[in-house]
Amino acid sequence: MGARKRDSDRRIGRRALLVGGAAAAVGSAFLARDELSELYWRLPGVRKPRVEGAVDYRGARWVSASEANFRWADRPDDYGIDMIVVHVTQGGLESAVKAFQDPGHQAAAHYIVGKDGRVTQMIRELDVAYHAGNRGYNERSVGIEHEGFVDRPQDFTDVMYEASARLAAGICRRYGIPVDREHIVGHVEVPGTDHTDPGEHWDWDRYMKLVAAAHTATA
């Protein structure tokens, strides 16, 4: 499951600093009213308006993670997204959902894919999830959890692989992420982490072929 080390950086994004600095330097009189109306939320202490219950992946079930387990952001404007990190929950789907809703858990991924292919989104892609155990990777990636245990290959079902591949392909298309193993990685490959997921039973060759096929099909 996602790293338990809390991403302690709570500062505003780079673009918020730039906008705030610009407004202070030139004064609001020099900024067009429509520009201010669009950029006001980038100023310190202001959150971009959200549509409650909105999902980034059509068909996903929305269940909100605890605000303690992610950081509000506006990716890819403030942090570019160029990576997907693959995880395994080390438990059942609903236990993972409950963990990500727990503020004391201090970690959560954007998505969970169940053995039955059901996709649950818990954090918007524009926000920074605490899933990789590495601040830089958190800021640049989308985290996908998979229901099951790393030592149980039977947990990685056909419908799970297929659903996750469609999800990953959509993410790659949205942000122009190359469909390769440099940009779609396992949690174990994140520098500084002590996790081993998705483990030796995760079929990377199969998964990447499915992602590539889904990416081509949606194109």
TrEMBL record:
GO molecular function: N-acetylmuramoyl-L-alanine amidase activity
A Pfam family matched in the record: Amidase_2
Keywords: Cell wall biogenesis/degradation, Hydrolase
Protein name per its UniProtKB record: N-acetylmuramoyl-L-alanine amidase
Keyword Membrane: no
Organism, as annotated: Streptomyces antibioticus
InterPro entries cross-referenced by the UniProt entry: Amidase/PGRP_sf, Amidase_domain, NAMLAA_amidase_2
Residue stretches making up the N-acetylmuramoyl-L-alanine amidase domain: 71-199
GO biological process: cell wall organization; peptidoglycan catabolic process; peptidoglycan turnover
